[in-house]
Specification:
single chain; mainly alpha
Length: 242
Amino acid sequence: MSVTNGIINGHRMIIFERYDFDRISELYDLPMYYTRDQSEQFRNYFMEYVYPDPTRRQELEEAFGQLDNYIKSPEKIMRILADSIGIMVKFGRHFPKIITAGLRAMKSYRSANKLENLLVDVALESNAHPPYATDEMKSFMTKIPDSVLNAHMSSIWPLYDVLLDRELVRKILRVVDALITKMEKRPNIYQASEVEGIKVGREVIEKGAHLFEQFEPKQLEELIGMITRIEKDAYKEFMSEE
């Protein structure tokens, strides 16, 4: 097993344990409506799209790698859709906001990669060999700068912000569908890998939206507040700052 795969698996183990339903039930006052099944659905979603296993990670990395140009320059997508009069008229001045929100949500996954790359460096410097136990992984985490950990914790909020707004999700999916159609009709301009990157990003948003639809808006805000507390408590033990 490579050091990189060892770190990915070790990090996944930490996340899996962090959101164990029995564990969080003991440590936090869970809402009555939040069931074990729903808890597992949330955990599975993030294990699939934010902290995937090495094989899935490679697939997502290849797909999302193609999104980088669009994430850095959203106007490229706007140019692709420039002749989609119906879409442009429908959303008017909100169109740039829709595109930007969608791209920010799609890239939430990338933060896990950045953190894990630093953990790989720590493991190599420590001359530690995989597989890595939970305690060893936690030891590696204490060597990551607080600023990086804080940035990683914050990286998922753009996805939450989008998923909380159901109307925005519908608009994003409609625009992305139009984008995919345009790109697929022009294979001489857009590579299949570029289209796949957009499709994977769409899947991240659509699956998350489906998960969030189980709850009322007030419930979702409460759940996200709970997740925020869990994340802050978890990373507090790795940080040097008070």
